[in-house]
Amino acid sequence: MNKSFFILTLIILTSLFSCKKEKLFQGETTDFGTIEYYDSFLFYECENFTLSKTLKYNFNDYSIDKKSTVKLNIVDAEQNVITNRDILFYVNDELVKGNSFTIDSKVSSKGSLKLGLKFLPSYPNGYTSGFISVSSHSLDVINNNDLNTSSEKRLFKWESTHKLIMNPLKKWLMWFVVFIISSLLMWFLIIRNKVYSKFKKGKIQIVTPYFKGINITRNTRLIVFTNVTTKQKVFNRVFTGKIIYEVNPIYENKIILRPGRGNRIKIKLPLGVKITPQVVNLEKFNNYNIKLGQESLEIQYS
Q: 271, CA 20 to 30 Å: which among 30, 69, 202, 290?
């Protein structure tokens, strides 16, 4: 007795293929792979990619003469036609309506079909699987499976994984923020004080020609005696340290105090200006007299 044959084989286009044997299903299993998706963030939205495999088919001469057809359903693990609208299937890049499609020997006796699978972002995260099964047919045998005697209608098993990942823009921004915070911590805790030395806590007392105290904090990096009103910018103060400007008309040329070793203070005098006693560094608990033209400036460091 002659029988019509429908032979279905799978050509894998990627290396993600395994031929597995299960207790309840003894056919082939193909892994479509993993689709990664992420939630929308700001203006950066996820693209829905389609994974695909190629299915080759071939009708034998007898089935071609009989104009045989086979209708295939895409079913879930419980062998129910998939109704979840968040998972889409394609045949030759066309959406499969009702998750059912037909292969007709009158259209083509042999060829290949491009099977595509797409998860929408709302589809649950994780592993999913199902089968391609025979719904109706005018055949006797498919893939060596006698349809007249066997109750097995499943041709092969498909599986895929829907994996939730972090939005790339959110991830980039997160690492950028981490980098900025780390850089700021490095700057403020280590680098800043090496680049811009700070004073020890203390006080400069102006005794003559006027009386005034200048309090030195641990964030002070410079003290400038000048006759020009100057305001330090906030950004500069935060990232480099505080500059104290002592403004008075007697300071025609700048006198600059910088941190020295230990509790010492380095003093930079204008050309021709002398200090008594003659020192380069001011020592704590000492008085100093600086001759500024007709004026005499007496200071005390404590």
A: 202
Please report the domains of the chain, with CATH numbers, ordered by start residue.
5-168 (2.60.40), 193-301 (2.60.200)
* pLDDT of 258 higher than 60: yes
Residue 84 tokens, joined:
């979840």
Q: What is the DSSP letter of 81?
A: B
Given a cut of 80, whether residue 283 has pLDDT beyond it is: yes
What token pair was written down for 103? 């292969």
* Average pLDDT across the chain, whole number: 82
**In sequence order, what are the residues at sequence separation of 6 or more whose Cβ sits closer than 8 angstroms to the Cβ of residue 56?**
8, 9, 10, 11, 110, 111, 112, 113
Cα distance from N-terminal residue to C-terminal residue, the chain: 117
**What is the C-alpha to C-alpha distance for residues 262 and 244, in angstroms, rounded to an integer?**
20
Using DSSP's 3-state secondary structure scheme, residue 5 falls into strand
Provide the pLDDT for residue 99.
87
> Which positions ≥6 away from 240 have C-beta within 8 Å?
192, 195, 196, 221
